[in-house]
Each structure stands twice: as C-alpha cells, then as structure tokens.
Amino acid sequence: MKKASLLLLILFSVITTKAQDSLMLRKFFDEALVNGKCYENLRYLCKNIGPRLSGSAGAQTSVEWSKKLMDGYGFDKVYLQEVMVPHWVRGAKEHGFIIDGTTRIAVPIAALGMSVATPKEGITANVIEVQSLKELETLGEAAIKGKIVFFNRAFDPRFIETGAAYGGAGDQRFAGPAAAAKYGAVGAIVRSLTESLDDYPHTGTTGYDPQGGNIPAAAISTIAANKLSTMLKMRKLPLIKFYFKQNCQHLPAAKSYNVIGEITGTQNPNKFITVGGHLDSWDLAEGAHDDGTGVMQSVEVLRIFKSTGYRPKNSVRAVFFMNEENGHKGGTKYAELAAANKEEHIAAIETDEGGYTPRGFSFQGVSSSFLKDVNKNWKKLLEPYEADRLIAGGGGTDIGPLKETLPSIVLIGFRPDSQRYFDIHHTPNDVFENVNKRELELGAGSIASLIYLIDQHGF
C-alpha cells in the first residue's frame, strides 16, 4: 500500500512538473512574440552602427552600445572583458578581370580576410584551376609556380544541412592560398562558399602566417567562377589570364572587449549557463544574420527572464564575443578566464547560424544515452514551438575553447533552418532587411526555453 502511494506521489509530481514547465515555456514565447525587443535592437546595431570588424571604429562603438543596452535592462552584472584582437583592413575596393587576349572581363571579387595586398600595380598571371588541396600536391611546383591558383570546388548540394556543404568546401578558402604559396603560386582566387549562383563575392578568413610566405587571395562570385572555369576549358591555358588588385593592410593588434551581462543564480551563483554570439562582423555589410541576430537573441533571453519574473537557480550569462570572424580571440579569452577564476560551467549555447526559423539544438561531444534522455525529457515540451530537433552536432566556434579548459561542460548549438543562410553569409547582402522579425523572436523564445529546462532539471 505504501509503495503504491509513493508511486502515485512520484507520478503526480512528474505530471505537475511537466505542466509547470509547459506553462513557463508558453510564457517565454508569449513575451518574445508580443513584447520582444531583439528585432528593434538588431535594427539599431545594423543601421546605426553597421559593420563591426575587429579593431575597427564600428567594433568599438558596438561594444559601448551593447554595454549600455545591458545596463539599461538592469541585469545583476554587466561588464567588459578585455581582449587583444587582430586589426586587418580591407582598404580600397578590389578589382578583378578575366583576360582573354585583348579582351578584359570585369568580375566581382573580394579580398579574403587576413590576406595580404597585391603589389600596387596588381597581379596578372596565367590561371590554373583545381578542385582540392590534394590536387596541388599532384600538380607540383612545375605546374603551379608563377600562376594564380583558382580553387573552384562547389558546394555539394546533396547535404540537407547546408553547414555540412560549407564545411566540405571550406578548406579551399582557409588553407588553399597558403598551400598554393608553397608551390610558388603568386595569388589565389577562391570560389565563394555558397550554393547560390549570384554575383556576390563571399569573403571570410584565410590562413595567414605572420612569418611570411603569404600570397594575395580573393573570393570570386559563383557566376564569375563558372565563367572563368568555362573559358579555361574552351581556350588553351596561355590565352587566359587573370588580373586582380587589392589593398589590404595588417595593422598592430587592437584592444577590444567581450560584453557580458549576467543574472545571478538564486541557488548556485557560482554555476554558469552561457548563451552567446559574436558581436564582430565582416566589413562588407551590416552583419545582420552573421551574427547580429545571435547577439540580440542572447541578450533577449536575459530580458525575457527578467520580464517574466523568472529567477534562475544558476547564473545565466549573455556573452557578446569579439573577433569570431578572423581570430577567435574573444572565445579563447572567455574560456581562459573561466578556468582561471575556477568557474563551474554547466552548459554553453551558441547562436551563430542566422536568425531563421528555429528547428532545434545540437549537442557536442555527448553520449547516445545523453541524447536519448534529452529527447525523452524535453522533446515534447519543445514540439509545440517546432524547436524539438535535439541531435548530436557542433556547439560553435566561440564556445569551443570552453571544452578544452572545462571538460565537463555541455556545448550546444542553436540550429535554425539552414537553407538560406549561405546565400548571404559574408556578403554585402547580409543586411537588416533580410531578417524576419517573427523568425528572430521564435529563436529567442526557443533558446530561453532550453536554458530554463537546463536550469531547472540539469542533464
């Protein structure tokens, strides 16, 4: 009889807890959708501040404004975390031409981040097209020396999750120019990392060696890449040349900051759940989806908690990381200080895949039994909001260093719909007008809900 009563009590407790959780998640989404602030905050960041490449005046202005924003929300703690960051400057607009005999065909290019400049007069050379870094090794110095290497591996369209296609093509941008330099190439042109066929060149970081041996490297739009490839196949190699000119500079490292807001835990003030994105952006546009949406969703989580009266058991931090795009110094510094201060971190969530419709979350480095438990306990609660895809996968670049210094932490990536992200990623088209208000707010509600569940129930 006593056993039956105990089982009934446990069952009643579980049902009551689930009902309370369901009501709280509904409360968070109502606040995000009815009174949400992240869209208007994003508008200010994009339109009043704009591009925010590390070391720039825009980056510093964004730091000052972000701290003021968090102060205004009345979080328990708001502070800056100093970090030294690279200061790379694009300079005057780049120029690129396909040269076919006496004909010059202008094509859209953009210097890759951390690339060196061309000589003042630019570079003109024959072009050799490759599909992989391995192909460089096969061709060798005899075929490559003195030429511009054209990396033209397209996205693999078979991947449903487009981030996998980006990962599959990305080594040619980050490692390709440095690899080509070892075989005597004088420059590198890299097909933009997108499946979209358009005339927007997509920038992004390429590997840079401070010791030297770097060659100028630029992204070329996908339409122009197809044109160049077709012309190379139709003509004999010596007839087709490429010219490009870019004016990049490497300036001394600059002082910048991570911006951090915190709601202190009522029961475990020294245990932390972090949510963050990166405040810096490339210089070509406003950095709306990459990653203005992420930082605005992160601070919105804390605002939602305050507005709904939810006081977390554990301390919850919103972190605006600096320098994700071309150095990852902000994430590294945050992890270093967390370890030095002997902080106990339960979980970290990164939102850096755009402000599109939420689909779920990926969990990095966890067991299959862990994922099974997460799905068993939380999937039904997240289903009404269509954010219930809880899978194994990456956490994120900025939170990654936490795993090295705090091995027990669970790293989580917010996973919105991925189909449109790489159409505008790292391009002049990454502007506020391409963000949907409702999608952005749904994402903020989803992240707030997951943090609540972690805070209440742990793993």
Task: Describe the 3D structure.
The protein contains 14 helices and 16 strands. The protein is of the alpha/beta class and 459 residues long. It folds into 2 domains: 25-88 and 252-457, Zn peptidases (Aminopeptidase, 3-Layer(aba) Sandwich), CATH 3.40.630.10; 93-247, Glucose Oxidase, domain 1 (3-Layer(bba) Sandwich), CATH 3.50.30.30. It has an 8-stranded mixed beta sheet with strand order 1-10-12-11-13-16-14-15, sandwiched between helices. The protein has an 8-stranded mixed beta sheet with strand order 3-2-9-5-6-7-8-4. Strand 5 (123-130), helix 4 (133-144) and strand 6 form a beta-alpha-beta unit. Mean pLDDT is 95; it is low at 8-12.
Question: Topology of this structure?
Answer:
Layout: H1 2-35, H2 38-49, H3 57-73, E1 77-89, E2 95-100, E3 103-107, E4 109-111, E5 123-130, H4 133-144, E6 148-151, H5 162-169, H6 171-174, H7 176-182, E7 187-191, E8 217-220, H8 222-234, E9 240-245, E10 249-263, E11 268-278, H9 288-308, E12 314-321, H10 329-340, E13 344-350, E14 358-364, H11 368-382, E15 389-392, H12 400-405, E16 410-416, H13 421-424, H14 437-457
Helix pairs in contact: 1-9, 1-14, 2-9, 4-7, 9-14
